[in-house]
Every structure is written in structure tokens, then in C-alpha cells.
Design goal:
Elements lengths: L1 H10 L7 H22 L7 H7 L55 E2 L14 H12 L6 H7 L30 H10 L4 E4 L4 H9 L4 E6 L8 E4 L5 E4 L3 E9 L3 E6 L2 E6 H9 L5 E4 L1
Antiparallel strand pairs: 1-6, 2-9, 3-6, 3-9, 4-5, 6-7, 7-8
Helix pairs in contact: 4-5
Length: about 290
């Protein structure tokens, strides 16, 4: 703008040194003119009735009421106050109920004298030999072969004698084997002897018989050896447990450490642990006096 003004003044041949005064005079004149225009152009007051009809109604300004924001007051730290639980009522533990003591305490050891054994006649006639030697102790004389021939025959040793009495020792049914306690006990009763056959006789029951002076026939493996039973299904459909080298001996004594047996005509002792294992193979079978 200043450049344009300078060129204009140059055209009208006004020296540059007189320009500041002319410029000041021009501004002064412009201010006076503007004041005159403003005075002449003032509007006449408008009647109130006309103003109400033409003006826009405005919502009066309402001063905003300042509501102070409440300052944050931290909540108190929650402290757990444990509620005391009622004290447990102590119930005394009941002492285990013990079995009633035996009417007579078993002695630590016992031996029966006067039981006489004999060698068995046939390879598998041990049950008959044990039965007639046991019966002789109680006063009944029976021949070994007589007793053997009187036993029923069956392929089930729980029902009768299995196989040829002269067969090879150590086999299991249906091969030549022998007979279990039930047929032996039944035949002894048929001879009038109060014999009881049992499966599952306990060690205490056996000792009680010996302490009472009554020998007991038991079913073991070999000469009271370790062994194992196996299942066998007989022709009648019954499954029974049998053991290779099934054998019988007569228990005639015991001590805290050993068991004395009569095996045919031999008397010897075996450790209790070995005896109980061998006797348990066929289920603790026994024949005893009643």
C-alpha cells in the first residue's frame, strides 16, 4: 500500500520530503469524515409495539450456579475382624473293641505223644494212611487199603478219590491225584468216629486242638513245601482249587517257632511260616476230632 501511495505522489510531482506531512493531513481529514457520517446515520428509536412484533424472543441468560465438586474422601481401609468360631467339642475316640479273650490261654508250646505212623502202601494213598493212623490214636483200627477202597471215586477231589492210587505223584486232576478233606471226614464218621472236616481252619484253632491233646490231619504240598494252587473244572461243572504234590500229614505239636508233624512214619519240624504257607495252598483243609 505504501508503495502504491509513493508512486501516486510521484505522478503528481510532489517531492518525497513533503510526503509525511501530506500523509498526516490525509489521516486527519479521514477521521473527521467518518465522525460526520456516523452522526448523520443514527437510527430513529423504534416504538416498543413494533419491536415486540418483529424481534426474535430469546431465552434470558441465566447465570450458571456453580456446584462445587465434592472432594474425594478415601474410604477407610476395611479391616477384617474375624468372627470367633465356636470351639470344637472334643469327642474322645472310642477305644477299639477287642475280641473277648479265649476262655483258656493257649500255651506257648504243646506236643502230643502216642501218635504212631506207618509208611503208606501205595504212591497216592497218603490220605488213607493219615486217616487210619489218626483213627488208631482214638481207638479205632482200620486197614489202609480198606479205607482207600471205601472212598468214593470221582474226578472231583471234593467228591472222591481222583485217579489210580498207584499213579505218578505230583500231578493234578483228572490225572492220578488223591482226595481232599470232605470225603475223608465223611468216611471216618461212617466208621463211627466223631470227625469234622473243615476248610479255612485258623492257626489258633489248630493250636487249640493240639493243646487239647487231639492231633489234626492237614492238607499240605509235599513234605510241607512251598506251593501254588491252580483252578480245575471237574466233569460235574464245579471248579475247585488243586495243587501239584498234594499231600497229608498229622500235626502233633507246635512251639513259638515251629510245627511238628507226623508224615507217614517220619516225625519232623518245620518253621511256622513255611507250615502256614504250605497249609494255606489248598485253603487250610483239616480233619479233627469232635
Amino acid at each position: 500500500m505504501v508503495v502504491r501511495l509513493r508512486k501516486t505522489l510521484q505522478k503528481v510531482h510532489i517531492p518525497w520530503k513533503n510526503w509525511p506531512g501530506l500523509i498526516a493531513l490525509g489521516f486527519f481529514t479521514l477521521i473527521i469524515a467518518l465522525a460526520a457520517v456516523q452522526h448523520e446515520g443514527e437510527l430513529e428509536p423504534v416504538p416498543l409495539s413494533r419491536m415486540a412484533a418483529s424481534t426474535v424472543t430469546r431465552t434470558p441468560f441465566r447465570a450458571q450456579t456453580f456446584t462445587p465438586t465434592p472432594s474425594f474422601t478415601p474410604s477407610p481401609t476395611w479391616t477384617s475382624t474375624p468372627t470367633p468360631s465356636p470351639s470344637a467339642t472334643f469327642t474322645p475316640t472310642m477305644e477299639p473293641t477287642l475280641p473277648p479273650p479265649s476262655p483258656t490261654e493257649l500255651p506257648a508250646e504243646a506236643v502230643i505223644k502216642g501218635v504212631v505212623g506207618h509208611p503208606q502202601t501205595l504212591a497216592l494213598s497218603c490220605e488213607s494212611r493219615s486217616a487210619v493212623d489218626w483213627a488208631a490214636f482214638f481207638g479205632t483200627k482200620i486197614g489202609e487199603l480198606e479205607f482207600l477202597n471205601a472212598l468214593p471215586r470221582s474226578d472231583n477231589p471234593e467228591k472222591g478219590f481222583v485217579g489210580d492210587p498207584n499213579g505218578v505223584f505230583g500231578q493234578i486232576p483228572p490225572n492220578p491225584y488223591g482226595v481232599h478233606a470232605a470225603p475223608v471226614g465223611a468216611l471216618l464218621r461212617a466208621y463211627g468216629i466223631p470227625a469234622e472236616d473243615e476248610r479255612g481252619m485258623s492257626w489258633d484253632e489248630l493250636r487249640a486242638e493240639i493243646a487239647d491233646g487231639q492231633p489234626v490231619i492237614v492238607w499240605v504240598v509235599g513234605s510241607v513245601w512251598w506251593g501254588k494252587a491252580v483252578p480245575y473244572e471237574a466233569s460235574d461243572g464245579e471248579t475247585v482249587m488243586v495243587a501239584p504234590m498234594e499231600h497229608t500229614v498229622i500235626v502233633i505239636g507246635y512251639s513259638p517257632y515251629s510245627v511238628a508233624v507226623l508224615d507217614n512214619h517220619l516225625v519232623y519240624s518245620v518253621p511256622i511260616e513255611r507250615f502256614l504257607s504250605s497249609w494255606g495252598v489248598l485253603g487250610n483243609q483239616a480233619v479233627y476230632y469232635r
